[in-house]
Every structure is written in structure tokens, then in C-alpha cells.
Write a structure and sequence with these properties.
The protein is mainly α. The protein has 2 helices and no strands.
Length: 64
């Protein structure tokens, strides 16, 4: 679970940025904004899952 999560987040960011630029060039600014927000939400959910796993690990280690 080490570096592959960084690669996943980077890939989502790049795809969102590229898709956003393509949509802006086509004149679909609203859809571009929605796409950017959707990519951001996906990354936030991934990070929150990682934080949850970290919290569970701390609970297990310190017997809380």
C-alpha cells in the first residue's frame, strides 16, 4: 500500500486536469468544474480511508 496510493492520486489528478482543460476548450465550463470537483471528492475519500486505517492501526498498537 506504499507508493501505489501516491501514483493513484497523481493519476486521478492528471486525468482530471486534462479532462478539465479539454472540456474548457470545448466551451463546457460547467461540466469542467463538475469534473474537477468529482476528482477532488474521489481523492478526499481515498485519503479519508487511509486516515481511518491509520487510526485503526494506532488503536490496535496501543490497545485503546
Amino acid at each position: 500500500m506504499g507508493i501505489e496510493i501516491i501514483f493513484k492520486i497523481t493519476a486521478i489528478g492528471l486525468l482530471t486536469a486534462i479532462l478539465g482543460q479539454i472540456l474548457k476548450q470545448m466551451g463546457k465550463d460547467e461540466i469542467s468544474t463538475i469534473t474537477t470537483v468529482a476528482g477532488f471528492v474521489v481523492v478526499i475519500i481515498m485519503v479519508l480511508n487511509l486516515i481511518s486505517d491509520l487510526y485503526s492501526t494506532f488503536q490496535t498498537i496501543f490497545n485503546l
